[in-house]
Amino acid sequence: MQERGNEMKEKKKFSIQWRVIAIALGCWMIPFVLMVGMMVHYILSNQLGDRVDNMTDQVNFNMQTSVERLNQAIEDSRDASYEGELRSVYEAFMNNHYKDYWLSGRVRGYLNTKYTKDKSFSSTVFWYLDDPEKLNGEVYNASAGGSYHQIDTYWKEDHETVKKYAETLDTNIGFLECDGRVYMIRNLVNRSFEPVGVLVMRMNIAYCFEGMRHFLEDFDMSIYLNELNLEFSQGKEQTKTEGLHPEEYPKGSTWDGGYLYIRNLVKENSYSLDTLVRIPKMVVMDSMYAYLRILGVMIVLLVPLVVFLILMVRRHILQPTEQLMEGAREIQEGNLGYQITFEAGSREFVYLTESFNQMSSRLKYQFDHIYQEEMALKDARIMALQSHINPHFMNNTLEIINWEARLSGNMKISKMIESLSVLMNAAMDRKRRHVVPLKEELQYVEAYLHIMKERLGSKLTVEVEIAEDTLNEKVPRLILQPVIENAIEHGVIRSGSGTVVLRSYKKGDYLYLETENNGVMNEQERAKVDRLLAPDYDTSKESSGNLGIANVNQRLGILYGEPCGLAIFQEKDDRICARLTIFVGLRAQ
C-alpha cells in the first residue's frame, strides 16, 4: 500500500512538470498570438485615432509624474514650518543673545539635513525678516545641479525681488521666475501666524519635469506653472517657443495646420500646471510603420524563443523545485540541519533555498538547545530587563521642571513636561511592544535630550547623523536612551561640557547605532565596562546606577544573539564610542 502511494506521488510529480511547461507555453503563446492579431488589425485598419489617444495618454501620464514631484516638493517645503526647528533656533537665538554665526550654523545644518539630498531643489536659502542679510542660512545640492554660484546669484540679483514677492504670500506657497531661475517661496510663521522668515528654494526644473523629456527631441512643448512660462523646445530647457499658448487650445488632442496639439491642465491647491505639446503629423504616422518591422522580427524569433522558454522553465523552476522537495523529504525523515547545495539561477529560488537552509539550521539548533524552555525564559528576561527605570534621571527631571516653573515662562515648562511625558509613556509601554521603528525610538531620545539640554544649557552639544534608510528599521524599545544617558553622565557632565554625536548606518544585515562623547577611559573604567558587558554578568547584583548599559547589552544578546550587543571603546585620543549592533536581516523580520 505504501509503495502504491509512493508511485502515485511520483506520477503526480511527473505530471506537474509537464503542466508547468504547458502553462508557461500557453501563457506566452496566447498573449503573443493575440498581440500579433491586434497589431495586424491595428495596422490594416490604420486607426490613427488610437495612436493619437496613446500619445495623449502618454503626455498625461508623464505630466502626472511631474505633478507628483511638484506635490512632493511642496510637501517637503512644509517640513520647515511644521517641524518648528527654525522657529526654535530663532527663539533660542533671541533669548540667549547668541552670535549671528551660531544662528546661521544651526539654520544651515537644518537645511543641509532636510534638502541637500532632495533632487527637487538645487539650492535652498532661509532668512529671518529681522535682518535677512545677517540672519540666514543657505545650502546647495550638487547632485541636482546646485552650486555656491547659485546662492551668490540669489543674494546679488534675486533677493530683493523675492523679498517683495514674499510680502504678498501670507501663508501660501508661491512660484517666482527671475531671469529663467524659478523659485518656490513660502513664509515661516510663528504660533501667532505672524511671518518670521522666508524659505526660498530654487527649483530643479529638469528633475521636476523629467518625465516630459521623452517629447523634447522631436517636439515642441510649453509648460506654464501658474503664470510662469517654463517652455521647452527641441530639448533645451526654458527657451521661449513662439506661438505655443495653451489657453488657445482645448484640453485633450487637437489637429491644427499639420500638427497635433496635446494640452493637459492640472489644478492643485497651491498651483496650476498647463502643458501644450506640438507634434508634427508625420511623426504620428511614421511611428505606426515600426510595428511591421517588429512583427517580422517576432515571427522569426518565435521558434528559438519557445525552445529557450522550455529550457528556462526546466532550469529555473523545475530543477529548483525538485531540490526543495528533496530537502523537505530529508527533514521529514529526521535529517535536521540538511542543506540544499543546488545553485538556483533565479533570485526567487535563491531566496527560497537560503531561507530553507536557514530554517533547517535553526530547527536543528532549537531541538538541540531545548528551544521551548529557552523561549519562555527569554520572554521573562526581556520583560525584567525592560522594567528598569533610572530614578535619578526622573528626580533630576522633576527638579529642573520645578526650577523652570519658578524662574521662566509657561512655554518652556510645557515643552519639558511634554518631553517627560514621552519618556514615561515609552517606559510604561501600554502597547507591550518589544521593538519599535528607529524613528519612534529617536522621539524618545529627542525628549530625553531636550530635558538634558535644559539642564546643561550650552555645556551640552548634540550632533545627529541619522541615515535616511535606517529610520524604518525595527529596534528594541528604549535601547538608545540608556546609552545616551551614559555618554552625557560620564562624558559631558564629568568634563564640565562636551559634544555627543548620535549616528546610524547599515552594513549588510546589520544596523549600527553609535554615540560618541568626550572622554578618556582609564584602566579602572575599562575593567568596569568589561564587567558590565560580560555575557554572564548578573544584573541582580548591581546597583541601579550601573544597570543601563548592561541591560542594553543583554537585551540585544537575548533578542538577536551573536554578534549583536553593545561595545564601548576608545575611538580617538579624546573620544569614546558606544556602538549598538542590531540584526535587521531576514531572521529579524
From TrEMBL:
SUPFAM superfamilies: ATPase domain of HSP90 chaperone/DNA topoisomerase II/histidine kinase, HAMP domain-like. This is Histidine kinase. Keywords: Kinase, Membrane, Phosphoprotein, Transferase, Transmembrane, Transmembrane helix. Its main location: membrane. GO terms for molecular function: kinase activity. It is found in: Membrane. Signal peptide: none annotated. The chain crosses the membrane at residues 20-44, 288-313. InterPro entries: Bact_2-comp_sensor_kinase, HAMP_dom, HATPase_C_sf, Sig_transdc_His_kin_internal. Pfam families: HAMP, His_kinase. Residues 315-368 form the HAMP domain. The keyword DNA-binding does not apply. It comes from the Bacteria. CDD domains: HAMP.
